[in-house]
Amino acid sequence: MKKQILTLLNALAVFAAFLLLWQGLDLLLHLPPYMLPSPAAVGRAVLARFPSLVASLAITSEEAAGGLAASIVVGLLIGLLFAQSRWIRRMLYPYTILLQTVPIVAVAPLILMWAGPGTLSVTLVAFIICLAPIIANATQGLISVEPNLIHLFLMHNASRWQILTRLRLPHAVPSLFVGIRIAAGISVIGAITGELFAGSSRVGEGGLGYSILYASAQLQTDYLFALVLAATVLGFAFFFLVMFLEWYFLHNWHESARTTAEE
Amino acid sequence: MLGTTAGEACMVTLSGVSKRYGSTTVLQQIDLAIVQGEFVSLIGPSGCGKSTLLKLISGLTNASEGSILVEGRAPVQARKTISYIFQDATLLPWRTVTRNVGLGLELEHVDSKTRKAKVQSLLELVGLSHVARAFPRQLSGGMKMRVSVARALATTPRLLLMDEPFGALDEMTRDRLNEELLRLRAEQNWTAVFVTHSVAEAVFLSTRIIVLAPSPGRIAQEISITLPFPRSRVTRESPEFESLVTTVSRALRGVHSA
């Protein structure tokens, strides 16, 4: 615990030094505020436009969380399908790689065309970008069960359902969390990317990505910085939430969760 | 103490059993009858098909030729009477010791009240009550194996198949677990088929040792172990024990050089 506090203090000290350096640079060079606003200016922008900043943050979080949640459900279902036979995996797995390699920025306009501007399109973009790591890790977890454990279950006349619910699924949880952790980080990126295209169905009200476009067009660089900051905070929040859930579910029995919790 | 009280009822019968994987013959023409109450050890060099033999008796794999009966039924039909103990403890890491021991009962739809009582009495029997709520990762190798044994016994098997269960343990732990295994056998009266690499372990535990020869796997020699029960540390120091170890070792050497 002491060590953790020390780490936190270190990080805060670095951040404070960084802010000081930035503010000092601004005082020395007198850059126009639309090029590089001072931290103080960014701070003022945050305070002045706090309600709209929070509104944007809320929209983006909703879209990212929605996409992530949908990708967990769908990815796990696809993983369950893939776990049924090697034959199915061989046939369908290449398409999940396709899912990963197709540039999302190229597909986003298409999605916008099909689903219309607004939240649904953005959530879909986040969902698509999150899906591949969930499928890959869920499948891996479901099929990597030790053969002798399967034998053990068979010796007790276990049904396919019992093997799935009492062996394969719990065994897949740590691996699934690896996928969720990766997906959580990129879900925010996905949502913001989606917003750059799909924006909002109402002018002036939208998520972080939409507001970033808006602010940059208006040369409100101080607010733009505030939005970027908010996006970063959101990414962190997602990451830590997943870390916490992972610890909560796994700390009793799984090595990876235990070491992160005890260090 | 041996099968005599049960009237020599046949537990396992293999007749003319062969097993091939592709063009390799793993086991050839095995004839073997195991009577109720026997403790039979299978010993032999690697590649002699000891583990395959256990898999055949459990029905986890099918014979290419010949017939296998467990209590007069096909192995798969007899699974309710069989428990299998693997080389590694094969515990579910997300379950506590209690819930691991209760796994077999749970899979066989035994109601939770009966299960709890059964698990509790078994944990006492194998001396694990103090770690009932612990998770497997908190246990030593020997403890994990004990949980594995308890889990196998929870379903009250009449036939216990063990595939080198103590092979990964240090010698002191192994000796102690061997003694415990015999104590449990005396109380519960199951029949055992035990695969091992250790001659001393085989002699200590068994009523009969079957020496297998490799490529293709076949029965080379059967040695009856007449040491009296109960066996203990004293048994290991007796001259009879020594001479049996020598006999089995010689048989094993003969198989190796062949």
Give the SSE layout.
The complex is a heterodimer of chains A (263) and B (258).
Chain A lengths: L1 H28 L9 H10 L1 H33 L3 H16 L2 H12 L3 H25 L3 H9 L4 H39 L9 H10 L3 H30 L4 H8 L1
Chain B lengths: L9 E12 L2 E12 L3 E5 L6 H9 L6 E6 L11 E4 L11 H5 L1 H5 L4 H14 L15 H14 L4 E5 L7 H18 L2 E6 L2 H7 L2 E6 L4 E7 L8 H5 L1 H19 L1
Parallel strand pairs in B: 3-7, 3-8, 5-6, 6-7
Antiparallel strand pairs in B: 1-2, 1-4, 8-9
Helix pairs in contact in B: 4-5, 7-9
Description:
The complex is a heterodimer of chains A (263) and B (258). Helix content of chain A is 84%, strand content 0%. Chain A is built from 11 helices and no strands. The relative contact order of chain A is 0.13. Chain A is mainly alpha-helical and 263 residues long. Chain A folds into 2 domains: 1-30; 38-262, MetI-like fold (Orthogonal Bundle), CATH 1.10.3720.10. The longest helix of chain A is centred in the last third of the chain and has 39 residues, at 160-198. Chain A starts with a helix and ends with a helix. In chain A, α3 runs parallel beside α6 (119-143). Chain B has 258 residues and is α/β, with parallel strands linked by helices. Chain B has a single domain (3-91, 158-257), classed as 3-Layer(aba) Sandwich (Rossmann fold), CATH 3.40.50.300. Chain B has helices spanning 50-58, 97-101, 103-107, 112-125, 141-154, 171-188, 199-205, 233-237, 239-257, and strands at 10-21, 24-35, 39-43, 65-70, 82-85, 159-163, 191-196, 208-213, 218-224. In chain B, strands 5-6-7-3-8-9 form a 6-stranded mixed sheet, sandwiched between helices. A 3-stranded antiparallel sheet of chain B has the order 2-1-4, with helices on one face. In chain B, α4 crosses α5 (141-154) and α7 (199-205) crosses α9. Chain B is globular. The termini of chain B are far apart. The chains are: A mainly alpha (263), B alpha/beta (258). Chains A and B meet through α7 and α8 of A and β5 and α3 of B.
